[in-house]
Amino acid sequence: MQRPVxxxxxxxxxxxxxxxxxPACRTFLDKHPDAELLLVGKPDALTAAxxxxxxxxxxxxxxxxxDDPIDIALRKKRDSSMRVAIQQVKAGDTPPAAxxxxxxxxxxxxxxxxxxxxxxxxxxxxxxxASVMPNTRDGFTTMxxxxxxxxxxxxxxxxxxxxxxxxxxxxxxxxxxxxxxxxIGEEAIxxxxxxxxxxxxxxxxxxSGLINFRGNVEGNDIFKGTTDLVVCDGFVGNVxxxxxxxxxxxxxxxxxxxxxxxxxxxxxxxVALPVLKHFKDRVDHRRYNGAALLGLRGLVFKSHGSADALxxxxxxxxxYDAARNGLLExxxxxxxxxxxxxxxxxxxxxxxxxxxxxPRQAA
Amino acid sequence: MQRPVxxxxxxxxxxxxxxxxxPACRTFLDKHPDAELLLVGKPDALTAAxxxxxxxxxxxxxxxxxDDPIDIALRKKRDSSMRVAIQQVKAGDTPPAAxxxxxxxxxxxxxxxxxxxxxxxxxxxxxxxASVMPNTRDGFTTMxxxxxxxxxxxxxxxxxxxxxxxxxxxxxxxxxxxxxxxxIGEEAIxxxxxxxxxxxxxxxxxxSGLINFRGNVEGNDIFKGTTDLVVCDGFVGNVxxxxxxxxxxxxxxxxxxxxxxxxxxxxxxxVALPVLKHFKDRVDHRRYNGAALLGLRGLVFKSHGSADALxxxxxxxxxYDAARNGLLExxxxxxxxxxxxxxxxxxxxxxxxxxxxxPRQAA
Lengths: 363, 363
Known about the structure:
Chains A, B: Homodimer. Probably interacts with PlsY. Two copies of one chain form a homodimer. Chain A is of the alpha/beta class.
């Protein structure tokens, strides 16, 4: 049997805290007999889990609230469940206590604390946030960055492509995932100056075998599944993500309104219920909850703040899959390949053929 | 009775040409007894309309194909239906022959030819493309730019806000439409450097009464209808638009698949048909076809290339409404107000208190 995968869970984070995170952890443990959990939070709030096997409660006296400014999370609440949970994946003289951390806490705070505690990998200027969206092929399209970096250079976009490819290979099991650069046309001459330059870098990276670059993609290609990975800056990625969420919400509202508008519509709703249910399950956003914070010296996953137990369990599973399949090493290998091939044109990285971090799972 | 509104129609443009544009023109004329049309194209292809009243065929010997490069449209095909149609709205020593032009031709070519022939208004650096998306309030959210300008300054975004406000006031009859700046968070400190600076300019413009600025909005606010107008650069706008199109297509595919998956599902589809039909009508993209090219010395509207007769008729109606309600004068007045109040901080515009163009409807 494989060595266990251990996750540290910020049980206090998100809109609902332990009332959601604990049931999710329970189900997750039942489904993953080789998983172990470090449940981080106020012990009083976690008593329900005190007797669980393959679990240990790690005390943290404070909680980062969803509307806490980054500064509070970073400098004031030094014993927050978020911070203590992240600390568990930090490698020091000894391997880290956990393989990956999961939190539903606020994104800005999580990224800031994770970056402060874990530091970025050599060869990475900025960590990025990657998540998945469903596509017509009944698979998932991975997309990054989704909001961590608003002003990006072409080099940053190349780094995103490299890290995202590592993520897809680890979590979705595709060794050479296809990569698209989000643009406003397929032709290489399209787009802003940064995007055109990024296109050149990605093409070169594709030719060197670092990534499997397929050229420009457009917004609709995300849902077509034209490429496994879509790369963009955090501003564009965040707008695309929230636009999609907004449209989905509107259409869902309209469908509900239409199926309750008249007595006939209500009857039709009863008849159509199993069909609508199947449709709903297929696009259920809880099935793809769990964004990866990539580029750090440790694995951190972010659940949606409003996640319910099923959604939070999905985030746990994604973190588990990433850790089980050596995401950290995969990112590191690809970045080192890029550095050695001098593909990353950032001169500051020229001599940074990095030492491997010491992840727990490499022991 | 009001003086007639006259539209020039590029009958050859789009994927389908006269087989779509002529039936759309016929229906449009029937619904608008005070409208007149200049039908531009190859006379042989327009014989069906030869005897229509309130119509005149204007001969053009060439056609800009959907995949023609901009250069071909601009420099080679000087007698194209697109170019001749645009020429009709150009004011010279005499008022223009038409109040607005409508084409389903390719966007890049249309913008380039329109800009070349008509020139930009004083105070406007770059024309922008504005269109509408449906929102949960059963209204429409107008958005610009949707792809004409990929690298924008804060000043450009201010100009978009001013022109977009004029558009909403003319077409949707809201005299002081609310304006949102598309960003990745509501707080003023969010976003890229350009967006933060644009936020300052838009706030100042709001305080001066030039626009009704409501602050930052996010992608999901487009479909909530949080503001009447959403302003963004052309890269972000195009990605948001195509992301929404892609998601809508995917969900529509999924619904069709679910309602044909099993014999029961097919039965349920029959029962639910009237409800699904009503839902479909509500989000029918043909109901909001017709993008405005704003900032030019003449009104030009762009229909989707793949528009059917109903969609093309919608574009004709939008152009008609804009011309009837003096969109050109409204844009001009607002831009002049901005110039006089020195709100547009582009120094090149400092002494450009512009002369009014001579639109046909002002005669």
